[in-house]
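Narrative of activities, Objective 1.

The group set out to show that a structural description can be obtained from nothing but a protein's sequence at a throughput compatible with the screening campaign. Below is one input-output pair from the validation batch, recorded exactly as produced.
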Amino acid sequence: MVAELMHFFDSESDYDTGDFSIGIVRENHLYRYVSSTLLEGFINYVDIIGAVLLERYDHIYPEDIKEAKKDFHTKIHKFENDVLILARSPYDKEIVWFFWFDCDVSDCQIGRFTTKSTDERLMSMLKDYAESLIQGKPEEREEDWDFITGWVELSKTDFSGWISW
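Output recorded for this entry:
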C-alpha cells in the first residue's frame, strides 16, 4: 500500500539536470537521486511545517538532536540520519514542498504539490509515510546499514538560520 502522502505525486523520475535548466520543479512530481546541494537551494526559501528523522543509518539518540540544534544555522548531517521535511511556499500557502535529505547526500528527493490540507493533516500523512518505511527492528539490522527501523518527529523549531547539509 502506498502512503497517502505519496498520492500527491502524479509522477516521479530520477534527477535529470535538464529538468532544472529553467529552475522549476514540476508540480505534483517527485524527483529522486537529487543531490543535497540542490535541496539547499530550495529549503531556505520555504516555511517549514515539520519533519521526521528516520532511524536508518544509526540509532536516534536525543543528544544527536540536541547537538544538531546547538548551532544557529542548522546542519542536517548532524542529525546523523535521513530527514524528511514538509514545507509551504511563502507566496502560495497551497503549495507544499517535500524534501528527503539522505545521509549519503546523493539519494535525496524533492517534490512539490498543491493541497488545501492543514499543516496538522500534512504532518499526520508524513508520520504515516515514515511508519510505512519501517523495515524491521534494530536487532534485525544485522550488517544491513541501510535499514529503516523507526523515526522521531521534529518540529519547525528544530531548524534555524540557513539550512545546509
